[in-house]
Amino acid sequence: MNQNAIIKITNLRLRTYIGFNEDERQKQQDIVINAEIHYPANNLCLSDDVENALNYKTICKSIIQHVENGKFLLLEKLTSDVLGLCIDHPWVSYAQVTIDKPHALRFADSVSLTLSYSTDPGVSE
Length: 125
Description:
This protein is α+β, with helices and mostly antiparallel strands. It is built from three helices and five strands. Helices cover about 25% and strands about 40% of the residues. The two termini are about 20 Å apart.
C-alpha cells in the first residue's frame, strides 16, 4: 500500500519586493505563502527516524531566504521559484504553492496565484 506524507506550510507571512509599478519596486510588500508537499510515507519514515523524513524546517528556511532577499516583477516568477524550492528533494512526488498578494487590487482582499508539480503526468489535484 502506497501512502503519502503530506506537509502543509500554512500562511507563511513574508515581505518582499513584488510588482513592476514604481512604488512596488521601492517598497517591500506583504505576501502569504501556502504550500503542500507530498512524499512517500514508507515504513522508515514512520519509524521516528529523522533521517528518513523530509525536513520541512529546511524547506521553510530556504523559502524565507529566497523571498526576503529577492526582487520579483511577477507573482508567477515568485510562485515558480517557491515551488522549485518545495520540489528540490528527490522524494517529492507532488507539490502545490499558492502565494497571495494582499491589497493588490482596490476592492479585493488579495490576488493569488497557484502552481503545482507532479511526478505523475496524469495527476492534476
